[in-house]
Predict the structure.
Amino acid sequence: MANNFLIALSWQTAMRRELEVVSNNVANLGTTGYKSDNSAFSEFLMPGAHADQFAGPDRRLSFVQDRATWHDYSQGPFQQTGGPLDVAIDGEGFFAIQTPRGERYTRNGGFQLNNTGEIVTSAGDRVLGESGPIVLQPTDRDIVVTSDGTVKVREGVSLTSDSTRGKLRLVTFANPQALRKDGTSMFTAPAGTQPQPAQKISIAHGVLEKSNVRSVVEMTRLIEITRKYTEVANMVQQQSDLRRSAIQQLADVPA
């Protein structure tokens, strides 16, 4: 295959990957706690080039390399809900969640109670406190989550006394880019990446952190990538047509 086709193919492959990333961001515009992804590309110079292969002795083919995808952890906008178990983290950090697949981490604070009184996610996974899952009693009411994550309730018919049911476990990571997504708003930590207690953060009660995807920016990127992909495809088609025409003309040359 000609070198120009190989270079164009590397470009199209990179743009296809970027298109998948942007499309996923757009699809999660309304997902609570979602963190957008971005693609990182770099130039890959083909090693071991020889003078008889290319136009000059020092010339090497330059390909587009899809190097990595990185997470944008910037804080999304807060939406007031008034939900008794809706909470959002103001600052850097994650809620710790116990799932059947192991411990996971999320910014989605849309919690609820299961039939045993445990605070769980919308998927039914237990939300972890500093001493394990947080369990409320059937007679608890007027739930309040303080700025440090402490869950307090009014117990029984008392109008004045407060009882503490636990404190949300809030964690952070030295290198959050090492985290891998598990679903739309969950993250998993690879081996060797340990969570640390989060510092200098505050919990907002009765609000949710929405997706940090910027709709206008992502839609603009989507249009731009689509146009570039079409331009490269047209260029490849033109080169292919020229080659086909040249071969046909050579075949018509009398022997």
Confidence is low (pLDDT under 50) at residues 49-55. The helical segments are 3-27, 215-251. The first strand starts at residue 37 and ends at 45.
